[in-house]
Amino acid sequence: MSTSERPEMVPVSGRARMFFAPVQRDQDSPTIFDPSAGFDPDAPASPWIDLGWVENVKRSATAKMGSVRTGPQGETRAQFRLQGEARLSLDFRQWGKLQMALASSTQHMNVLASDGTVPQPSGGHPIPAVTLGAGSSAQTLALDAVSLAKFAVGDLVVVDVDYSTQTGYIGTGVSGAYVANGADVQYDPDYVRRVSYNVGRVAQIGSTSLTLEQPLLGGAPLPSAKQQKVVAFVDREGASFFQEWSGLIVLPQRCGGTVCFYYPRLQSAAVSAETTHAIADDVHSTALHAEFMAMPVKDSVDSEQVVCYRVYLPAKNAPMY
Question: Where along the chain do its domains lie?
Answer without folding.
Answer: 7-105+242-313, 108-235
